[in-house]
Amino acid sequence: DKGEYRHYMLKEIYEQPKVLRNTLQGRISKTQVLEEAFGAEAKAIFDQVESVQIVACGTSYHSGLVAKYWMEDWAGIPCYVEVASEFRYRKVVVPKNSLFVTISQSGETADTLAALRSAKEAGYLASLTICNVANSSLARESDLSFMTLAGPEIGVASTKAFTTQLVALQLLSIALGRRHNLSSDKEQALVSALHQLPQLCEDVLALDDTILHTSEAFSEKHHSLFLGRGVQYPVAMEGALKLKEISYIHAEAYPAGELKHGPLALVDSDMPIVAVAPNDDLLEKLKSNLQEVQARGGKLFVFADKNSGFVNDESTVVINLPHVDDSIAPLVYTLPLQLLSYHVAVLKGTDVDQPRNLAKSVTVE
Ligand code: M6R
Hints:
This protein has about 375 residues and is α/β, with parallel strands linked by helices.
């Protein structure tokens, strides 16, 4: 039931504060991750993990790409991420004591399931799925599972599944991190940021009117570029996927530092450019990349920390977000990008919940 909402997608975007709370409930204490959430056997397995291989498709793949930054930064262990349709057909060299992780909303994606089955033969230490459907094939066939508690996701465009996956991946990075580089002070800081996350998501959803207004600039366009750096690069990829999937506008994500290696040639006054710009270590680098875009007449739409120092002018629209801890920025910055593609699609009159040519669950190859 869509309730007061015009589409399931909008309802599911707005549910995020609640389902993030649900996904965290009982999985963290005030200061720590409660790793029993990964299953009774998790402890003995986690004690042995020395690296992680993540495999998924689409939006779930993007959450894996974000997690790589956390796993390597916080836990200090190598993390590899690949789309399932490539992984399953490749000869894989399996490192010693590597944990095989699948991520999936449905738990039924054919390529992800086939990748899990091939991983079993390949010699991984154990398998873990981060999944939103308890009785799914992935949950049944994996050694360990962590359920995201997003509730049923009806819109084909994945929204709340993605952000709850990110929470799950933070908990996993912390649980593994404890056994490696992560101090208990750092764990406490990360957990305390997670406690603030649902409220910050509420605050960002309150920007909906501003984002609606911004979406008007996109509805007549045919192409767009999404830019981010570091952990925000996969967030930009997810923003671009959302826009192309439901509005049918060609959207491509680039790590901003790659602009001058090719895509800058595409930039002109007809090309909207979305930038994800929290106030992090890479902000100054991103800013100089964005100046190159402006110099070519590109119109910028910057989702920025209110302290990032961007100003509105003829070439730049700034959407200011609250200041958030670096650790949760990828989650918080995802929400306005979801809203942007939603509003553009509504303006274009597409079938938002059932975009053409796509199915919610891809159970065939
Ligand atoms: O159910 P899964 O998470 O395994 O699905 C994977 C992709 O098919 C899915 O995320 C798809 O990319 C979404 N429609 C994107 O919004």
